[in-house]
Structures are given as structure tokens and as C-alpha cells.
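This is your field. Pick holes in the following sequence-structure pair:
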Amino acid sequence: MPRSVKNTATAPESLRQLAADIIAYARKQGASASVAEVSAGLGQTVSVRQGEIETIEYNRDKGLGVTVYLGQRHGHASTSDFSRQAMQDTVQAALNIARFTAEDGCAGLPEAELLAHDWPDLDLYHPWPIDVAQAVELARDCERAAFAADRRIVNSEGASVNVNSGSFVLANSLGFNGGYTSSRHSVGCAVIAGKGESMQRDYWYSTARHPADILKVEEIGRIAAERTVRRLKARKLPTMQCPVLFEAPAAASLFGHFVGAVSGGSLYRKSSFLLDRLDEPVFSPLVQVEDAPDIARGLGSSPFDNEGVRCRRRTIVGDGVLRGYFLGTYSARKLGMHSTGNAGGTHNLLVRPGTQNFTGLLRQMGRGLLVTELLGHGVNAVTGDYSRGAAGFWVEHGEIQYPVEEITIAGNLKEMYMGIVALGNDVLVQGSRRCGSVLIERMSIAGQA
């Protein structure tokens, strides 16, 4: 576990001072409360296609946002100009907006006792000191590895290398002023196999806070090629019902729908298919879910949320039972609850892995559909009805038989969650949601009539 320290890996003092100046000026101009957000970042993206440079992009971004309160009326304004005059003009603009807004009994800063003061060193900042020439060569190596992996790879959509880092500061009139610096880098590759009407495309990527945690570029290219080639000679399926195994990258989306359903905005607007289900079973008893902000180098780790509320590790689902929501201050007040430190969303969402590897899950399924790609957005957040285009593989006797495409899988998320019969230990870290493959007992497949 990371050690507990006082304000470790803080953002540059200049940003912290600017945030403090904004708060002081807003108070002087009559704001009863205020919040300042200041950020600055830089990045570099290089992409190549068939060995030739396609794009070289640099970005150097900065911005400040001001929220002011006049009692229970509030206004917000922002700018990318850090001059003193621009800062003052932005505060005045926010105040002008606040004067014309209606009062909102739930508006306001978090309770002072919920704010973070000490937090762990989360090891989030690891700059990648590569220049354009080095990034181009890495991208070329990635693409070359894809072409070398299989002669059926005939074209490329390109390989890219992305390098990003930045600082963020949050301050408010309750005395909070905290910030940190972080980095995020990635390498990806997408290629095409086959010819004529039987061509297929797929991709792979790796992303991390530290460049040393990114897969070797040759490995990324090889995986992209293998995933593409295995889709050749895809067939259609007849309409049926059968078990469905979501490969880990696709399975993460299932928990994304869950997050949306138990987040404050959906709950107080009563637009959630999991409304009023706290302390009730919403998943199979196999499912355990944690929100973990404190993982060193975690892609979703943070010492405090977007309101300065301290973050803590929480059990969200225990033995299938919903144990917690994702709430910021406003949504918590609308629900008569307290902030959970999730203003801005979840942190690292951890779905506890099962005991079986991917091969074991295929054997357990026996006969059914393996989903490796999801298409479209046919999910009703209010009812939980689920219908999405999909591609993947047909499985018989626990072994992959052939690729399939142009099918639709359908069900209802409430039933799908309760119908989870196995979770894999093939956990993939490509973002803030960490889970292995997920086997669902039965879904409807719409294919050929």
C-alpha cells in the first residue's frame, strides 16, 4: 500500500497560488463561497501508417474554472488565460451568472469534515522523455511487428504513440487547496487482414501511468495481428438463445452500465434501472465489486475527488448485494445522503476475479457465443433493456469453432447481472475498470432468420 504523507506530488506552486488568488478575489467581490479549478498539461501524439509518418501533434493546454455561490444561487465561468485581469473577469462573469439563477437548496460546497487533508503517495507522475524521432520509431516497430506476425495482414490503419502529463489544482473557500501531477501514456495499433469482401479489422493497445508498464510495442503489434486474423471467414448465426461469454475488454462495458445506474444523477432523476435497490441483490452472489482510489499508478487513482472530498476504498457490491452508490455532494443532498467521494465519477473499479482462466470459462460454457466486440449503443438506462450488435466466435465442446459477425445480442441487464455464472481471472488493465471475462447463463441472439 502507498504510504500516507502530507500533500505528496503536489502540482506546481504557481497553480496553487493562482487558485488561492481566485478564492480571495471571489470573497472580496461578495461571493459567499467559491471553488477554483486550475489545470495545465502537455502532450505529444505520433502516428504512422505503413511505415510513413501520418501525424505529429503537440498540445499544451491550460484552463481555470470558477464556481461562485451567492447563498444558494451559483454561477460558473472559465478561461484559458491565466493573466490577473482574465482571472478577475472570469470571477465577475461567474458572479453575474449567479445573480440570475434560481436558488437551489442542494447547491453548495461539501461539508468541511469530508474534505481531504492527508493522502497517500499514489505514484501517478512518470514523464516519458522521448522525442518525436523516438516515438516514430516505436510506432513503426509496433506496426512492423503486426505485419510480420502473419502474411494475411495486408494493410494498416496505423500505429500511434501518445505521451501526456499534467497538473491539477482544486481550491475552495473552506480552506482546501490541493493538487497533484499525473501522467498517462499509450501505444496502439490497428491492422487489416484478408482481401475483397472478406477483409477484417482489429486492434490492440496498452496504456499506463509509467512507460515501463506499457506492453512492448512488438507485443502490441503481434496481438493486434492475431486478433485480426482470427476474424477471417466469419459466419452468421441463426436466431437462438444460448450462454454468452464476454471477453474481458467487452465485459468491462457491462460494469460501465452498472456504474451509470448507481450514480447520483441517475438515481435522483429516477432514470435508473437499479432505483431503490440499495442493500438488495443486483448481481449473482459470485460478484464482488470495489471502488479503489488508492492503487499506486492506477489509471483511476486520485487522492481526492473533483470537490476535494477525501477518497476511500469502498465495497460497492458484496456477494451480489448492492452496498453503495457513487455520489458527489449535490446528488447526495438530493438523495438525503452524504458524498461518497465520487464527484467526477468512479476511481478504479475492481471486479474480483474468479478462479478459472479463459480456457476454463470456454469449457464451462461448452456451447455458446464468445463476444469479443460490441457495436452500437442499444442500452435503455431506465429499464435495463440491452440490445447491441456483436462479433465474436461460436464455441462447441468448450473450444472455439469459427468467427461470427452481424449478430445482435439482447437481454435485460437486471437479468444478465443475476445470470452471471462465472468470472475469469484473465483481468485486463486498459482503463479504470478492471475485470476478467464474464459468463452469462443465457441471452437472446438475433441472426439469420
